[in-house]
Structure formats: structure tokens, C-alpha cells
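so i finally got all the pieces together for this one. its three components total, 1379 residues if u count the protein bits. some of the lines might not be protein, just check the labels. i wanna see the whole assembly predicted at once instead of chain by chain like last time, that was a mess tbh
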Amino acid sequence: MMPVVLWTDALIFLLVAGLAGLVALVHRHEHLAAPWRRIAADPVAVSAAVVLLAFTAIAVLDSLHYRPALPPGPHGEVQYAPEVKSALDRLLAPLAERQEKTYSAPFATRLYAKEVIILADDSTVRDYPRLQHGGAHLAAPDAGLATDVALRAAAGLVLAVAAWLLLVLALRKRLRRQQFAGGALLYTLLALLVAAGVLAALAPHYHVFGTDKVGQDVLYASLKSIRTGVLIGALTTLVTLPLAIGLGVSAGYFGGRIDDAVQYLYTTLNAIPGVLLIAAAVLLMQTQLETHPDWFETGAERADLRLLFLCLILGMTNWTGLARLLRGETLKVRELDYVVAARAFGVSDGRILLRHILPNVQHIVLISVVMDFSGLVLAEAVLSYVGVGVDPGMLSFGNMINGARLELAREPVVWWQLAAAFTFMFILVLAANLFADCVRDALDPRSRRQA
Amino acid sequence: MSGLRIDGLKVEIEAGAVPVDGVSLAIEGDECVVLLGESGCGKSLTALALMRLLPEGVRIAAGVASLDGEDLFALPERRMRALRGGRLAMIFQEPMTSLNPVLSIGQQVEESLAAHRGLAGRAARAEAGRLLEAVGLAADRLDAYPSQLSGGQRQRALIAMMLAGEPEVLIADEPTTALDVTVQAQILRLLKDLQRQRGMGLLLITHDLDVARDMADRVAVMYAGQIVEWATRERLYGAPLHPYTRRLFRVLPSAARRGEPLEQIAGRVPAADAALVGCRFAERCDLAVEACRREPQALREVAPGHWLRCGVVDVNSSQPNPGPRAGEGGAVGVPPGSATVLELRDLKVHFPIRKGLLRRVAGQVKAVDGVSLAIRAGETLALVGESGCGKTTLARAALRLIEPTAGEILLAGEAIGGLAGEALRRRRTAMQIVFQDPFSSLNPRMRVGDIVAEGLAALRPDIDGMARAARVAELLDRVGLPRDAAGRYPHEFSGGQRQRVAIARALAVQPRLLVCDEPTSALDVSVQAQILNLLAELQREQGLAYLFITHNLPVVGYLAHRVAVMYQGRIVEEGEAGALLSAPGHEYTRMLLESAPGRGLKG
Amino acid sequence: MTAYLLRRLLYAVPILLGVNLLTFTLFFMVNTPDDMARLHLGVKRVTPEAIEKWKAARGYDRPLLVNAEAAGLGKVTETIFYRHSLAMFAFEFGAADDGRDIAGEIRTRMWPSLAIALPTFVIGLMVNITVALILLFFRRTYVEWSGVVALVAMMSVSGLFYIIGGQYLFAKVWQLAPISGYQEGINAARFVWLPVLIGVVGGVGAGARWYRTLFLEEAGKDYVRTARAKGLGEARVLFRHILKNGMVPILTGAVAVFPLLFMGSLIMESFFGIPGLGSYTIDAINAQDFAIVRAMVFLGAVLYIAGLILTDLSYTLVDPRVRLK
């Protein structure tokens, strides 16, 4: 196989590395670590962080891309498949490859639509045909389904609990630290393990969340959508930060003309309705991509490039809020006595910014990064609905919802695709929101007073 | 049983600390009791507990308080509410934030009248007008909003609101601490008058011994959550008994102590959550014996009306007059023939006021308007004035931190007004600054060692890392900080220690002039003495010149060689400290001196 | 005050000019009219003649910034920049790809937009403030705790879920409202109530939580302690003192977005088939009609600036501390 590093993969690795570096930095400095210890003592924050980490792990797994090797060509040369796969794809292969013809409900053994079925005696009937994969192992699906599902789920549950108990035994000593919400960590892990265990036990035999229009397993689609959501939330911030920090802090610190220019810039950008600016930019990007087919080799690369541009565009329109906050805070910090003292030493502006201003406004950056994440995940869905989101060929919550919403008019209703997308999105966003709240409470001196 | 009685009040913080531990007090119907203590001793929490207005997470753990025999802590909240702002009222320290900014003064006074006297409409308005006049505000200020009033006026308005319920006892929590000296004198006078006219009890909370002496009938001295001494004013000021009270009087700077070092109180106040058994002052007390640390001390009556929490001190001897202390301190003679370090000639700093469509300059705020000064090596020039007089602007302009509009700045005879870039930077080693607020003057994200080294790194790049670290260690040692301070962060230090760090930072580049911008006004008096002693020592050792900005006249009398009085951007009077303070020439100087607390209330 | 207003209005000019230049750059320089033509006519097998014809029909055959061929003022006026960008300052938006006059469309479509957006906004504001006050009143009780949890959960749900779920339940299953469509006049209410309800419910999570933070911040201030020290009851402290101060940022913030209500709601209108500006915009985006998108961008910017000025004015009305100079 041939490893492939897409643009967004590279950035996500960079992000993970940056995060690891940050953790190391915080760990080494007592005054940086103090607020995080408060966060670690908060059970809600710990639960939310565990869930977020689980989602991130899936996203990272889904970012280890490669092109599988094909059988050697006629002259023994190495050949690779044209489509790009990820480590997650390989893990989920049993799900991905079990394609049905079209819709089927969760745990269904028969297709959603009636078809003409040729019986053994060559006669035909119009009926709901058996699924090719879902519940295919059952001889009499209508009678044995419930028992089979229950048994398999129970097996998954038992395994999960057993795994959890082992984990508890292993971690027991290390978690018994003061001021650490170890219980929350363990119970969240239990919930995640049970969910994973039950799903793992059932998914190879049933379509737990049903199948979509082209017969694809909805659970698979949901898991694949996680990467898109996490990427949009995380990468956009990465784009936002340099602009927001650079412009916001220098506007506040230098004032005068620079301040005027930055304020003009963000007022102008804010004046344009956000969705329209994004829509306009995405439309333009689309035409550019269409007129430059030489920019990418595979469909995945094209979709990836589009995702990258989307993050860039969202970042361009999103930096103004943080920049404004930073400008205000910098205005306050630059008047503080320790900055005046530094100026009395003739310390250069660059050094003052680096040693005095930035360290004392960094909490605002952190708070805003975690607060924005959830908003961006939700925005992806809306943008995809408007038609200016990620590539239609890419799996994302927005595209799942978009593809499914018209099917609500059907009878009986096709609800499972929407339900799966909304549920996954809800869990991710809720975890992010709860975590963001805790981070803000711990880092923002204003909210700490109230606590 | 008239008046307010407190017995064994104990206030507890959820985390386990006990900031108020067994306070007992009584305020008769028409007397003024002062609760005196340094910051953090629990005096404000005592007051808030009486009002049952303790902040979240703080609660009354034990004790009884009664107003005319009515048990305050047992009342249901509804009846307590009728009492609060009615028979028992309270005013606060911060006049700037204690009034609701979006309601007019009239609305806020009438609200109290409606709640406690059932007045409404025209009657309420008329009564509100009378109340304003009673506190010295014109009745037409009823329609003003707090933002349109000065600090003193706001404090008067707040008093009017609290008088609306015709209180039997008024609690005043540091009511003048945020105000200028002249305004403070007026507000104190007003409170005293109101107390006498209305026959009202006044519980005044303050850290200022002079204010207490002017106002009190009886004084309770509080230390670390307990009352350590409780006596009439005459007895307490005439013959203080508790070692803490005695020390407190002796650490105060004054012109009389000129030339001698101030007495200090070693160590620091024990933390509120420390497990304390014995006397809380024992660790800092030079009379302490082993029993002091082991056995709790009870508050006992040692003479009629004089209560004391100390078993060691001889209650029959009055305070031994220590006489002049050995060594030198405060203002000693300026070495003869010392050179002028800094000279300002006709310095002006004007800020433009822009108006109208095109933001044309419509006028100038003349923050500093033609100031000429000179400071010699080894000399302390005190710059005295009230807030807004331009003294901080003047100091910053002299340091070239604000661009002066006109005038000359001569550093050791060389004009530096026009210098820029590297040339200016080299001159910066000669002049440094120490600020008022020990909390905002140190970057919370930097280690103390890095803070002290910052100036060295910027101004003396020739000194390498090793030498710099050695110099930092030496400086920290010199200002009396422990060796390991360099590796710690500012939040681990107390206000006084932080001020020492700030001094070390300024000294690092070996300046010849130090601008001290109210360096002790945010500190407790016991800490102030330490800092003043340190500054005096440094001046003697290194021949430093100080431009000492302050509003505290006793400090001026103690350590200044010369005094310049600033008023509305100008120096109205300047001269040798002793002469100027004893025979002021200018009207404004006279007013400042007369307003200073501690000489009895005027009028 | 007048001088202040005039200055703010003057400041609007460079901002609108900036918006204008930005859209011009995006739509005509990054993406040339040729690109646009190709996109509309199909990328492959398109003749140069067809492109020229497409451009001429829309007036995009002029030079971008300077027309060297024209005489006199025409050098400047006979350009795309003048005709299609600067003209917007006179609210001349030109024609859409289907040939209809954009300005006329905007005039007729803004009323249905308002019919949805205005009630959503007003009712939403009241509901959010009420919820926030209730939570504040029940501070440190289970009511507050569960209320805050519910708000966080509500704001974690995708807005699309409220719309899709609401439409499905109320319109399809219970048939309490038409699934989509709109009628003028008194009949409008039948079509409007469901989108408004969904809009309000969808906004409570974030809105009420935000207002609660504002109120909480006020509740911690010194003047509240003064009010309590005066012996005022909890309700009076809450409604007279905290509410009045908390309303300052709420009202001024509300005024800021008020003009933008004219733009309508993209998603809601498109789901419920309301012929407003929101669905107009979304259709334009889907049809890649750049003329409409450009017009809406400009309109949005004008309304945004109107909101900024109104905010400043409203501050002088509700906050005695603010005096405009």
C-alpha cells in the first residue's frame, strides 16, 4: 500500500502535535497548569473531554490515508487502487462492504421497498426482499430477530463491562489522586465502552442504523462524518488564530493608524452577512476547482482540497470576533503597570508583546477556540444544506441530513439517517459545549468570581 | 438594651477558613465605635454578617447579634429586610460602584423611602430632597445620575439613601478610603454631625488610626479575626496595652520620627485557614512566652471599659516610651554639594479634546501645565497632591513614558526631551519607577527572577546570563526577599513582598533617580514601615534621588527633604519639608494640612 | 449629537466602499466574467461566441475598471466597476439571470421575510429574557441547575433538527399548519406561526443562556449589595436593579441586529417555502446567480451599518452614562 497524506491530514497531524506540545508546556509551568487542574477536578469537564477525545481519535484514525496495493500488473509493476482509504476504513471494512440495494430500517432483515422476487419455482411475487447482509444469518428472521439481537447485544455488553473492569483495575492507583474527577472518567469510559461493545457485536450482522438510499450502512456513514466535523471545527480555528492574534493584539497595542486600519477591516468584513460571504467565496472556489482539474489526482484529493478551502474561508470570516476581543483586552493590559515598567526599561515592542501582552491575553484565545468549535460543527450542516458546504461526495453530517430530509415525505417515513446524523452531532456538540463552559469558568477571571 | 450588641460572632468560609472568630462588640445608641484593623483581619465580614449580606459561600457559624434586644440572626428574612436599610443601615467603601448607574439619585433615595417609610409620589420626592440637603447636596441633584457626580458627592448620596430609613445604627465600611484627603475630611465631618444630630449609633470600619482617633468614642482593634483590644478612645490612644496595638502606633511614620528608622512588625498575619490555638499575634510579638502559643487568650476586662486579649503584658504600666530609635532612617541630610540628577523646566503635558464632525481640537486638558523642578542626588522630593492634579502624568512625562507637549527634561544636565531610539534607551538606566499597586505592577506570567532581570537584559545586554543571575540573587537579597524567590511567581507573594520585587527590578539597572508613585498607599501600615525603611536605607547606601509621589502627609514629614504641592497641573508651593509643613504659604497647602486626619475634626 | 451622527454616517461610506471593492474583486477579478459564462453554459464545448453573447446580455462585456475606448467620462462610467458595483450605492442592482429586476424583487420579498423574522425576534427576545430571569430568581436551586442543563442541551442541537422535526410533527403528522407556502394579508398567520415557533424554540438555548450570563454579571456588582442593604426584596432587586442594568447590553445588542431582520432567514424560508429574501438568496446561491448574491451582500452591509448607528443611538437612550460626542 502507498501512504497518502492529504492536505487536511497534514494539518490535523500538525494540530495534534501542537496540542501535545501545549500540554507539555502547561505541565511544566505551575501557573499555567493551575486552571487546568481545576478543570480536571470537574466531573462534567472530564466526561466531556473523554467524549471529545474519542471523537478525535476516530477523526485521526480516519486521517491515516493510503492507497491499497492492487495485484501486480502484467510486467510485475506495482499498482495502487485509485481510491484513497483510511485506517478507519480498514477497521470498518465489514460495515463499508456490506452494501444493500437501497433503504432499509435499523435492524431490518428486509428491504424498505417492494421488489419483484423470483421464487424457486420461477414464479414471481412482489414483496420486500431479504437483505443481502442485514440479518442474513437468520433462517427465520421474523421469529428469531429479537432474541438474536438481544443475545448479541448482551454478549457485547458483557465484553465491554469486562474490558472496563480490567481498565479500572489497571488505572485504579493512578486515578486516586486528589482533585481529579476519576469517577467521571471511569463512568464515561464505561458508557463509551458499552456503546462500542454493543455496536461492535451487532454491526457485523445487522444495519444498526439502517441503510441509506444507495444501500450504504448509516453507522458507517456517521462514523466517517466525524472526521469532517472535527476537521471543520479544529482547522478553521487554526486558520483564524494567526489573523485574529496578529491583527487584534497589534491593533490594541499600537493603537493609532494600525488600530484604525484593523477596525476598518473587521467592520467591513462583519458588514457582509456571514453566510453570503462564505457562499460567495465557496462559489468562486468551486469555479476555480472546476477550471483547474490539474490541481488534484483523485476524487478524495479534490474533496479534501474543497474541505481545506472551506476551512480557510470560514477562518477568514470568523477571525473578527476573536480579534475584537483581543484588541479590547490588549488595550487594558497595555496600560498595566508592568507594561509601563517594561517601557521604562526601553524593552522593545516585540519583546513586550511576546513577554507581557500575549501571555496575559492567551486565556481569551483558548476560551474562544473551545467555544467556537461547537458552533463550527453545527455550521457545517447548515452550509451543506445551503449548498456551499463540503464536497457532495464527502461524508459529512450536513450531507447526511441534506440527503435524508426529502425522504421524510415518504410513507413509511425514512427517519434513521436523520436520527443518526443528529444524534452523533448532538453528542459531539454537547461534549464540546460542556467542555467549553468548564474551560471558560476556569480561565476567565470574571466568571471565576461568580463561581 | 438599646443599641447594637454582638456576642461571639464567628464567620466561616465554605472551604473551612474562619475569617471572623468570636467577635463581641457593643454600640450604644448614640456613640461612634470604630472597628480598627489591617486588611484581611475580618472587619468588613463582621459588618456584612450583621447585615446578613455575606457573599456566597460565606456564612455565620456562631454568635448572636441584637439590635435593641431583637435577635438579628434569628429573624426571618422578611423581617430582616424591613430592618436592613431601616433601623440598621450600611454604607460602603466604593462610591463609584455602589450606586446603580441607570437609576437617578432621586429614584434610588425614594426607593428606600418607599420601602421603610411608605412614602410615595410627591411626599417621597420632597423628603428625598430634604435628605439630600441634610447630607450637603443640592435638592436639584435628585435628577442626576451617579455618573454625573464626583466620588464625594456619590458617597453623600449613598448616605442619604441609608438615612431614608432613619437608622438607629449606621455601619460605615471604610467610607472614605477611596476619597481624597479633603473630601475625606468633609465626609467624616458629615458622618459625625449626622450621628450626633440624629442620636444614631455609628459603627465605623477603618484601617486608618488617625481617622479612628478623630471619629471614635470607643475603639475595637481587630487582628486575624479577633478583637484584641477594646477601649475608649482616650484609653486606647493614651495607654494602649496589647502588644499589637502598641506596635501599630509605633510603625506610623511622622515628622517627629524623622531621621530614625521606623519600628517594624516582623512576619505576617497568619492565614485565615491556619489552625490556631494560642494568641494569633504570638509569632510576631516580642513579649510572647511559650504559653502564648499554646493556650487561647480570652478577652478580659483589665480596667473598667478596657478589654484586652493578652495575658503577658503588664496592664499597669503605660506604654514604655521607646524614645528615639538607634540608627538612621527617613530623611537624613542630603550630602552637601550633591549634583542635580533631574531637572524639569516649564514642563507641559496637554491632551487635546476633539469635538465636532471633523474631530477638530477644540481645547486642551492641561494635565501638567508648566512645572519646573529639580532633584539632587540623595534627595527626596515629595510631590503632593490629590487625585487628578497631574502628578502621575508629570512623573511619566519626566521618564519619557508620555510625550511632553513643551518644556525641557534635563537628566544630569543633559536634555533628553528630544532623544529617541538607542540614545534614549541608554539614558533609561538612570531613572526608574516603582508603582502604587503591587498587583498590577508585576507580570503574573513571569517568574520573579525574570521580572528583576528584565531591565538588565534590555539595558545591559553586555552582562551575560550567569552574571545576570548572580546580580538578581544579590538584588533579591538586598531588598529582603528569600533566596528561592527568583524561581517563584508573583501570586505567591504578599503585597509588601511584591513591592520589594518592584524595587529590586528598578534597582537592577542602577538608576540614579527613582520615581515612587504612591508606593505604600496600597499597603498596610505595618508593611508601609518596612518599605519606607528599605527606601531610606537604599538612599543612604546608593545616593539615590527620589521623586516621591504621595498624598500622605505624615509620610512626607517623615522622609521628604523638600516638598512640591501640585494643584490643577501646577506646582503651587515648593520648599523645604519641615518649613513648608509647619508654615504653609499657599491656601491649598493649608487646606491639605488641615484636612489630614488625626488632628481632630474641624468645625 | 448631530455631529456624531453625521460622522458615523460618513464612516459608513468607506465601509460600504470596502464591501463593494471586496465583492467586485471576488466576483469580477478572481472570477472573471468569462469564468462565470463558462460555469453557466457548461465548462466543455462552449464557443467563444456563446461566451461573448452571454456577457453582452448582462453588460459584462465592458472592461473592468478603465474603458480606454470610450471618450471623456465614459472612460470611467462605461466599465463593469461603475455599472455593476458603484451603481449599487444608488440601489440599482440590475437584473438577475432570469431577467427580473433585483431591486423590485427585494421590495416585494422583504415583507414575507419580515413577517417571519420580526415576530421570531420579538417573541424570542421576550422568551429568552423571561427564562434568564427565572433561572436567576431560582439561583442555587434545582430549578436553576436543570434549567441550565436543558439550555446547554438545546443549544447543542442542530438548528436543522428543530426545523425538520417541527415541520414533520406539526405540519405532517398533526397537520396543524401547512407544510409550506405563504399568503399575503390575514391568511399569513396560518403560514407564519410554525416557523416563528420553531425559530423561537431553536433560539432559546443560546439566547437565554447568554442573557443569564449578563444578568449574573450584574448580580455580582456592588450596587446590588447596596440595593439589598436598603432592605429591598429579592424580586425588586432583580426586576428593578439587575434587569434594568442587564437590559442595556441586551437592548442595544438587539437593536444592532434589528435592521438585518429584513434579510430574512435563509434556512427557515427555504424549508417552509416562504417567498422572502432568505429563500431568494438561497435560490440565487444554488442557481449561481452572482448578480443577486452581490446585491444581497451590499444590502446586508447597508443594514449592518444601520444597526451599528442605531446601537449607538439606543445607548444614549437607555444608558445615562453614555453621551455621544
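Chain A is about 70% helix and 5% strand.
The first helix of chain A runs from residue 7 to 28.
anyway lmk what u think
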